[in-house]
Amino acid sequence: MININFLTNRVNQKGKQKEKDVKIFRISTYVLISLIVLMVAVFAFKLWNNLQISNTDKKIKEYKASILGQETTEIGYLIFVNKIKVISEIYKKRSNKQEAMNYFADVFGDKAEIAGMSYQEDQGGLILQIDSSNVFDLQEVNNTLDSQALRQEYEKLEKSVLTRTDTGNYKLTLKLELKTND
Amino acid sequence: MIEKKGEFNYKLFWNTRKELVLAILFFVISAMILFIGIISQIAPIRADLDQLKSHQAELDKFAEKSAQLQQLAADPNSNQFSAIDEVLPSHKPLLEILSNLNAVANNSEVIIKNFSLNPGEIATDTTKVKKSSSDQKYDYLDLDFSVSGALWKIQNFINLIEQVTPISTITNISISRNIDEDKNAQAQADLVLRTFYFTQPIKTTITSPLPIIAASERKIISSINELSPNNLEKQENVISGDRGNLFGIQNKTVEELEQELIQATESAETATEPTQIEQ
Q1: Which CATH architecture does the domain made up of A97-177 adopt?
Q2: What b/e string do you get for B133-156 counting C-beta neighbours within 10 Å, with b at 16 or more?
Q3: pLDDT higher for B222 or B237?
Q4: Domain-wise residue ranges, chain A
């Protein structure tokens, strides 16, 4: 007859089971603690975010009050800037008509007189009527008009009409394209 | 006894497998924490971060604008803000044009003739006028006139008139001289002077940034500083022509005037009555 002790086996099984349970318990504890720490971190981060948002809002309110307090300065500056832009636009459309008039009034010396002048801004050209008392003066005027110095200043210059008056004077019409400040 | 065998013995299970029960409980709690306390918080945290980012950007904008405004207020050149009104006024500068024309004509010794102007509504505050086009930033007044004098004086006049405030440009010039008959003939110039004024409505919000003046526009500031200001004083009262008391009724009440009239008519009647009797 063989004696079989089932209790020893059972005790061994129970012991192994206990060890396994303890191991699982330990793991679950670690998992729980880690998740609790993570949750606390998440809530702390959320709280910090909310604090940052409320701080930012507070600062925005302060800046808004400061900006509203300086409304007159802002409006003054805006009007100033917009006016400067408008003046800049007006200046760009201006041409160098005075400069051209003064230049042609002096460039011929006593060889010719300016008998007439016409300028229209929308057409952008200056028309000059030059009067020379004789053909020799007219020749001098022509030479001046063809000179390098004058052509450098005014590239688009056109000699359009030449007439001889009853008094023997020569009238030459010049068309000049003016540059704008664009 | 047989029925009792089928029942689960919780007490025994707790006593023998306590760790396993606790571990299962901990796992359940962990799962709840994971879903409720962590995963469900990700979306709100992300939204908060976005909100913080946008608020921070807004704060930066306000901080920059506030600093710029403080800098502007402390800028010693801020008096230019009001000085620009003389160069480009926000009203129709009719009086200024007339004053300039007179001053420049005197200065350049020319005579002004045939003067015509269509000012529309005089002294309207143009910034309040509703314009047909919202893009129109400025408007102008055209003044047609003729000047006569020596050619160089007219040239001088044309030079000077564009150098005074408010900003003006001569748009049409027609100069004629009858030098066929007289070499020293005076010139006559028909001119159109265009004077500009500002009409753009200014709009701003607390969030809109301050505009920046470009380098090319900075050059304009220095060139407009070279313009001569007009010397027109701001008039706030009607100035009398100093013509005295034309009707002689100053400091008299209506009753006193009535009395005077009655006395005058009575004395006139008494003066005419004897002559009628004599007839």
Answers
A1: 2-Layer Sandwich (3.30)
A2: eeeebbbbbebebbbebbbebbbb
A3: B222
A4: 1-69, 97-177
What's the ipTM?
0.70
Determine, for residues B175 and A120 on separate chains, whether the beta-carbon distance falls below 8 Å.
Answer: no
Out of B45, B162, B183, the one facing A49 most closely (by C-beta) is B45
Please list every residue in chain A whose beta carbon sits closer than 8 Å to the beta carbon of residue B189: 117
pTM greater than 0.90 (yes/no): no
**Rounded-to-integer distance, Cα A10 and Cα B69, Å:** 87
Q: Which residues of B touch A75 (CB under 8 A)?
A: 202, 204
Collapsed DSSP state (helix, strand, coil) of residue A165: coil
**Contact between chains at A102 and B155 (C-beta distance less than 8 A):** yes
Place of tokens 């012991």: A15
- Chain B: give the shortest CA distance to residue A16, in Å: 12
8 Å CB contact of A64 and B175: no
Decide if A104 contacts B157 (C-beta within 8 A): no
Q: Among all chains, which residue has been given the structure tokens 């207020």? A: B73
Query: Which member of A50, A77, A91 has the closest CB to residue B210?
Result: A77
pLDDT band with cut points at 50, 70 and 90 for residue A1: low
Q: List pLDDT tens digits, range A142-173.
A: 888 888 888 888 888 888 888 888 888 888 89
d(CA A137, CA A162): 14
B89: preceding bond cis by omega (within 30 degrees): no
DSSP letters spanning chain B: -HHHHHS--HHHHHHHSHHHHHHHHHHHHHHHIIIIIIIHHHHHHHHHHHHHHHHHHHHHHHHHHHHHHHHHHH-GGGGHHHHHHHHS-SB--HHHHHHHHHHHHHHHT-EEEEEEE--SSTT-BGGGSPPS-TT--EEEEEEEEEEEE-HHHHHHHHHHHTTBSSPEEEEEEEEEE-TTT-TTPPEEEEEEEEEEEE-PPP---TTSPPP---HHHHHHHHHHTTSBPP-PPPP-SPPP-----SSS-TT--HHHHHHHHHHHHHHHHHHHHHHHHH-
Give the mean pLDDT of B201-217: 83
Partners of residue A119 on adjacent β-strands: A126, B173
